[in-house]
Design goal:
Shape: flat
Strand content: 25-35%
Number of strands: 2
Structural class: alpha+beta
Largest sheet: 2 strands, antiparallel
Strand order of the largest sheet: 1-2
Distance between the termini: 21 Å
Radius of gyration: 13 Å
Length: 48
């Protein structure tokens, strides 16, 4: 899922959550990792 799709999901299902923009933080990043041969991705989005 792309950043844009994640943000659309937050806007639709996130109880009115809005992305937080702040020059001192990373507003969105992803972490990929493998567990027992299966790849996972965690997406972190800063919200107000």
């Amino acid at each position: 899922m792309s950043f844009g799709k994640n943000l659309q999901f937050l806007r639709k299902m996130g109880n009115g959550m809005k992305e937080k923009f702040d020059k001192n933080i990373i507003s969105c990043f992803e972490r990929e990792y493998e567990v027992d041969g299966v790849w996972h991705m965690d997406v972190y989005i800063a919200v107000e």
